[in-house]
Amino acid sequence: MNNAYHVFGLKIKSEIPLPAPLFPKHLSKFKPDVVIEYGKTPEALTNPQIKGVRFQAGPGELLLRVDGVAHYYVQDGCRITIMPEAGAMDDNILLFLIGSAMGALLHQRNILVLHASAIVVNGESVLFSGPSGIGKSTLAAGFHQLGHPFLSDDVCAITTSNGQPAVMPGFPRLKLWADVLKKLKTDKEELKRVRWGRDLEKYYLPIERIQDAPVPIKSVFILETTHTDKMEITALNGGKKIDPIIDNTYRLRFLEGLGGKKDHFKQCAAVAARSAVYRTVRPKKGFLLNELMEMLASRFGT
Q: Three-state DSSP class for 281?
């Protein structure tokens, strides 16, 4: 059964149910920007520009293979074909669909994608960016609990709205560790568990999405860890703002095969020019969530 959804500013028709708002119009009048369907995928690309462990990428196409889950064939920013492997769980198929496959599709549409989580503060978006496990989702969840609208988690798509880089609302859910849920006083027993990887005790926390239009970016916090007890925020200036944004592009290696590196630099430079960018350091051991949130919030108004 095909359903119609609205996410990342795109109208999506999908055979696989998505954790996204349904498009309000009847499907018969629905002209999708993107089609997601089950089908046969190629064994290999005919002209890949780059090959990774799990993927091949060339102009207008990307092939992603996840052992035990599925093959994903992403074409021209408008179609994702999924060929599941025998016995693959639907939740695992979805996990890589709304992550790497969707990230590749957004790259193909010439949309800047950052590895970041985003919330809304006083009508503008605030991004927490950095490597996996650094605390992006945790911070977004913590600030959401304080009343800040949620925008996106992990895959953060950025467009231009009235000349200003802006975050497009993504899938309305967060992936959080069990100990984080405990800190947030949220019962994990009522949540669906992420079933990928051994000893991975992460859970999906659904979020009500109240924002539909792109939200201009005010600030980007680049998260890092240190082996000391140091916790500090440093404002970056000039050209020093660009490299951290480039480095935290979602699946940056995809672009080496897909093309678009020149436009990508311009997009990153535009975010750097129109936003405040901060280097944010926290101790590697012990996630002092409340203290970190207080330190970040002190810069929300600057």
A: strand
